[in-house]
Amino acid sequence: MRRWRRKAVSILIALVSLTFLATAQAELPPGSYDKLKAGAQEKLKVKIIGVDQQGKGPKLKVIFSAEVLAVEHSATGLKPGDKITIQSYRWTKSYAGPKNPPVLPKGWVGVAYLNKAKGKAQGPGPTYKLAAYGESFEPSP
To answer: Can you give the pTM of this predicted structure?
Structure first.
């Protein structure tokens, strides 16, 4: 009887642990997002003017078209009125890693922390990527 109880308790602990691990999401160390934002090449107030989600499966490719409304700093010389493309992504299932970026709706206005993307432009104007993973966008008050 004792052997059966020990086995049952061991199985229960294993199941609880697996459930926790399956839903756990590893975050970056404290202060990491702030450092990434501080090191961003671009800090811009933008308005999302287009959203395109591509692909199927656990990771979607998300492309935003945006208009620059204001520039706090820009290493690439962006100015208000410029149109840019922002490469993003969205995990559709749980994963271990940095915070998942949001899929912003058309018309969203806020601050974007971005870095210049390498490669060919994918939309209007130059193409940028997220500088601070899921913390790369802050809504305007």
So the answer is: 0.78
d(CA 102, CA 80): 24
Q: Give tens-digit pLDDT for 49-91.
A: 999 999 888 889 999 999 999 999 999 999 999 999 999 999 8
Give SS3 for 1: coil
∠ CA 115-120-126 to the nearest 5 degrees? Answer: 50
Per the structure, the complete domain to which residue 98 belongs is given by: 32-139
Does residue 108 carry a pLDDT above 90? yes
Cβ neighbour number for residue 109 with a 10 Å cutoff: 14
Structural domain total, the chain: 1
Judging by beta carbons within 10 Å of its beta carbon (0-12, 13-18, 19+), is residue 68 exposed, middle or buried? buried
Q: Tell me if 3 is assigned to some domain.
A: no
Residue 74: CATH number of its domain: 2.40.50
